[in-house]
Write a structure and sequence with these properties.
It is built from one helix and eight strands. It is mostly beta strands. It starts with 8 loop residues before the first strand and ends in an 11-residue tail after the last strand.
């Protein structure tokens, strides 16, 4: 199994996540009219389900990562904590906002 850091991103977006309408898990970018999903607010299981059934319009994501570049997911067993877990997404290319991964959140 390969870690999610092998995920290929089409491009890094310059839009501001904080300006998007929505909640912690998904917000809408009005520039490209796309839902942007924050992988770090999802558990590994939720992220897997998202990648298996991406929206018809395509999949746009953002995420936080650790010092090794590994994407942090919400812990399935420790509420409020972010953990790195092995994740193999289906072959999907995704776009990520430019600020993706800038803020590490090892625990909320």
């Amino acid at each position: 199994m390969a870690p999610i850091r092998s995920l290929r991103l089409k491009f890094a977006c310059d839009e501001d996540w904080q300006a998007f309408a929505g909640d912690a898990k998904v917000r809408r970018c009005e520039t490209c009219r796309t839902a942007v999903h924050d992988l770090s607010t999802l558990t590994r299981s939720e992220a897997t389900a998202l990648f298996r059934s991406p929206p018809a319009s395509g999949l746009c994501v953002r995420y936080q990562h650790d010092k090794m570049g590994r994407i942090l997911f919400r812990s399935e067993t420790r509420p409020g904590q972010r953990v790195w877990q092995r994740f193999v997404p289906p072959a999907v290319e995704a776009a990520a906002p430019a600020d993706a991964g800038e803020d590490e959140r090892p625990g909320d």
